[in-house]
Amino acid sequence: FTRELENVRIKDPIFPVYSKFFARPLTSADEIREALIRQVEGSVRWVECMEDAVARFTPHVALEFGEGKTLAGLMKRISSTTKCIPVSSLADLDMVLALLPDVSLKAANI
Fold first, then answer.
1. 82 neighbors 60 (Cβ within 8 angstroms)
2. Pick from 55, 40, 42: which is nearest to 3 by CA?
3. Whole-angstrom Cα distance, residue 66 to residue 53?
């Protein structure tokens, strides 16, 4: 996996990317590459990631991508002020994007 990843071009992100291995935001391509390698065998630290994100950014909304609402339930225990919206289809994503104010995600064409 590591050798294959060396051939993948990874750019510095335009917003912080959380790693389940480090449980903190990553801001450089080198950090992301290292996290991808380490998290293959590392423990999932989702709760720690969300606790850190809430402490750093005090988000009002979090998105849970994929089927189910398990993470939304965990988020309720972590932060009573952060609403977690499940996104399991393109229609859900379109709805969320329509609700977003004209912020950096739309400006970056993400």
1. yes
2. 40
3. 20
Tokens of 80: 């009573």
Looking at residue 31, its pLDDT comes to: 94
The type of residue at 63 is L
Of 54, 58, 53, 65, which is closest to residue 25 (Cα–Cα)?
A: 53
- Split at pLDDT 50, 70, 90, the class of 39 is confident
Amino acid at position 7, single letter = N
* pLDDT of 108 above 70: no
| Neighbour-count burial of 34, counting CB atoms closer than 10 A to its CB (0-12 exposed, 13-18 middle, 19+ buried) | middle
Euclidean distance between the first and the last CA atom of the chain, given in angstroms as a whole number? 27
